[in-house]
Every structure is written in structure tokens, then in C-alpha cells.
Amino acid sequence: PLMLSAQATGAQIPVKTSGEWYIHLQAVGKDGGVSETVHAGPFYIDVAPPQAITPSLPEETAWVSDTQPPTFQWPAATDEASGLAGYRVYWGEAANGQSDTFVTANSFTPTEIMANGSSAVRYLRVAAEDNVGNVSEWQTVAIWQYDNIPPTGTLAIGSGGAEVRSLNVMLNISGSDQQGAITAMRFSSDNTRWSAWQPYQTTQFWQLANTPEKQAVQMQLRDEAGNISKTIVAEVVAVLNADNPTSASYELASSTFGMGGGTKSSTSYLVNGTSGQTHETGSASSSSYQVNSGYWADPDANCTAVSAATPAIEATASNQVKLSWSTVPNATSYNIYRSTNAPYFAPTTSYATANNSPWYDDNAIGTAGSNYFYIIRAVGSCGESGDSQRKGEFDFALQPGTP
Fold first, then answer.
1. Dihedrals φ, ψ of 14, to 5°?
2. pLDDT tens digits, 38-66
3. Quick one: which of 108, 299, 301, 335 has the fewest CB in 10 Å?
4. Where are the beta strands (DSSP E) in 191-346?
5. Domains in the chain: how many in total?
6. Is residue 30 domain-resident?
7. What is the pLDDT of residues 2-14, one digit of tens each?
8. Are residue 69 and residue 143 in the same domain, yes or no?
9. 65-82 burial code (b ≥16 CB/10 A, e <16)
10. What is the widest separation between alpha-carbon atoms in the chain?
11. What backbone phi and psi angles, to 5 degrees, belong to 11?
């Protein structure tokens, strides 16, 4: 019991736990006599803050480009004594921010509208409050990352020079993003028809058009928030009939029929010859072939030729054609050529490029009358290999006869 002096008119009684409390008062005389007990109560005391449930935040929060933040929700808090009144809410750029803003529901919709062409990080923090003013610890319930700035980048065809000596070229790519990361890229040769989005990487093989005119390759980059860069352009001229090879030791003035085709070399030079041409006369072609006469200098005397792939073909349960092959030594990618209903086609423009095996052709199975045939060429530092064995798929439909 708490003993008070005879002159006391009140007292502070410490309470350490929440609950229903009563006060019992007795007067004590100088002779030790005790009066009847006076009872007061119940008094409902709440000394504990609400119990908040800490949400599980992801280790990495995705970047978004929508200027309007969404409505956020968090697990509801509880208070067994006076009951839950609501939540104090902070929305801002401080990771440990606090605020007197008060809401009664366990949700919050920010009114802030983000500016286009900007980026920001916002923290949503809450503290639960009960009906007598006890407030829980502040906790972060959401981190919102806004990015409305497109990525930037550069594109070079080969080494970045004005000319290349092959139609199969390497694109060298560099990209940067102010926030987040670049996740995808796509390409075009006419700024209208674009390839599918593919994972971002710093190199990509590309097939140029067979034309002596200057041609362009367009590229777009996309970041984690979905922002797409401006179109990035690189231009080049494909020179397939190079000047006659020369060095300090020799000058190749003309070829002879007797020399024939193939690679000719010595300690001083390396040249590749086209069989049957005594001098350079330009290009001869038909619907089945194209031959450029004369000699051409190997742009890289140290390149390594690659052999043809040996493919296998099968159909999947998802109506795909699956092409698979063993890895070709020194190959960096594989150009896939496809024809429709023409098993003996001559490859011209590649249908797809694969970095490794297997490769799938979606929806290529199941249409009677549309049969597809494939040739694979491995690509190395010297260019394409020869043709692989042809592979094809056949679709047919059965029609019931007349009884």
C-alpha cells in the first residue's frame, strides 16, 4: 500500500502495465484505528503503444516511370488496451523521416506528382497510434523509386570506321542510365521494322545489306523502368571488292586463271583468290548465287576460320521447331537461314542469330502446307562457315475419304 500524510489531497500512483485498475482508500487515526475502505474505479489504463507488424521489404526495389505514385498498404497494427486510433505517416526523401500527418486506415495515397525527365527516391514510413496517444516505433513500409530519364548510349559498327570488309559485322555497344540499369536493346536497319527486345549486352552480331551504298544500323536501349532511349545510329559502307593487296615487299597487279581459288600466302602476304577470273570484273549473280571476281585482302590475317555446324531438328509440344548442334570451336554465334516450302533454297538474309544451342522457332509446327527448311552457318572472326546440312519439318492434314 501507498502511505500518504494526513494533509495529502492526492497522489501519483505509478502504473507499469495496461489494464483495469481500482483505488482503495482507508484513513488511519493517530491511535492506529482504520476507517472503512472507500473504493474508486475501474480506471482503464493504457501505457503500451500499439503492436505494429513490420512488413517484409524486397532486397531490391524496382524502378518505375509512372509520374503518379500508387496507393500503398501495410499490415494493420493492433492495440489490446485503448484500441488503435490510426497511423502517423511520413512520405518524403529522408530514409528516417517522421511526420504528424495522420490517417485512420492502413493505406496511403501520395498526392505528389513527379516531374517528367527526372528521378527520385521516396520513403513511406508509418507509426501506429492508439486512442490515448501512445505511438509505436517508426518503420519504413515502402521504398518507391522513380526514374523518368531515358538511357543513353553509343553504337559502333566494327571498329567504328567508315568502311567494313564483310556483311557480317560486330556491333559494339555502350550504354548508361542515370538510375537503375539498362535491361534490353533492339535494332533496325530502316528505323521502322525493329528486332525483338533482347537482354542488354555490349556486343551483337549483325547482318548488313549487300549494297555498295552507305547504310545505317539503328539501336534503342530500354532501362529497368521501361524508359526507351532516343534512336542511336551508326553508318558504314560495306566494301567487298577491296583494293589489290600491297606492302613494302610486293604489289599484286593481277591474278591468273591457272592460280585458281583458295588462300595463297608467303612470309610477306596472305590473299584469297576467286577461281576463274583473270582480273577484277565486278559481280556476277543469279537467283542462286553471287560471285565477286578478282582478289580480296583478308582484313585480319590472324583470324580463325570456323567449320560448319551439325544440326539436329525436332518438334516440341509447344509447336516449336527445336534446332540443336554441337558447339563449333572458335564460333562466336550462329546465323540461321529459313525458307518456306523450298528445301533447296540458297541462303541470302539470315532469319535469326543464336549465341548458342539450342534455338527455337516459335509456332513453326502445325500449319499444313507451310513447311520450313533450315541451314545454319557458324560465325567466327573470319566470317561465316559453309552451309550446314539442311533440316526441315513437314506438316500435313488428313482428309476423310468418301465411304
1. -65, 135
2. 887 777 767 678 887 777 666 567 889 99
3. 301
4. 198-199, 203-207, 215-223, 232-238, 262-265, 270-273, 283-285, 290-292, 295-297, 311-315, 321-325, 333-340
5. 4
6. no
7. 777 777 777 777 7
8. yes
9. beeebeebebeebebebb
10. 143
11. -160, 150
